[in-house]
Amino acid sequence: MEFAATETDRGSVRRRILCAEDHVQMAELVQKVLSQAGHIVVCVPDGRRAVDIFESGRFDVVVTDHQMPELNGLELVEWLRAHSFEGKIVVHTSRINPAEEAAYRSHGVSAILMKPGGILKLPEAVAS
């Protein structure tokens, strides 16, 4: 499945976003916030499913939680970078320690946003 970033009605770039989030309500909120900003959002409940769906489609941005079953956010980011994903990665998490933050930054994540307030910064993090 191919997808090309296009302009939204509001003139910003519409992106195809993969969201890995194991909490259903948070995934729904992320999808709503980013969809309202004009993006196409696909949500999956863990890092392993993110890998599976990533291999079957093209995504411009990945938004990931840190603490998830199967494959956590850092493992997902490591997999993405090892498979040449050069797009934006935004970590959206409720808890992260300094060593984990440093590891994410070493893999070139675009932003680390803390829950719950970080949800308001997601559209900007995806667009910038």
Task: Please provide a written account of the structure.
There is one protein chain. The chain is α/β, with parallel strands linked by helices and 128 residues long. The chain has one domain (13-127): Rossmann fold (3-Layer(aba) Sandwich). The protein is built from five helices and seven strands; from the N terminus they run βββαβαβαβαβα. The strands form two sheets. It has a five-stranded parallel sheet, with helices on both faces. It is globular. It starts with 5 loop residues before the first strand and ends with a helix.
Summarize the structure.
By secondary structure, this protein is α/β, with parallel strands linked by helices. The chain has one domain (about 15-125): 3-Layer(aba) Sandwich (Rossmann fold), CATH 3.40.50.2300. Helices cover about 35% and strands about 20% of the residues.
Radius of gyration: 13 Å
Largest sheet: 5 strands, parallel
CATH topology: Rossmann fold
Strand content: 15-25%
Could you give me the name of the CATH homologous superfamily? Response regulator
Number of helices: 5
Number of strands: 7
Characterize the overall form.
globular
Unreliable segments (pLDDT under 50, ≥5 consecutive)? 1-10
CATH architecture descriptor text: 3-Layer(aba) Sandwich
Write the element-wise H/E pattern from the N-terminal end onward: EEEHEHEHEHEH
Our count of domains comes out at: 1
**Which strand order spans the largest sheet, edge to edge or round the barrel?**
4-3-5-6-7
Determine the structural class based on helices, strands and strand pairing. Answer: alpha/beta
Mean pLDDT across residues:
89
Question: What is the terminal separation in angstroms?
Answer: 25 Å
Top CATH class: Alpha Beta
Question: Helical content, roughly?
Answer: 25-40%
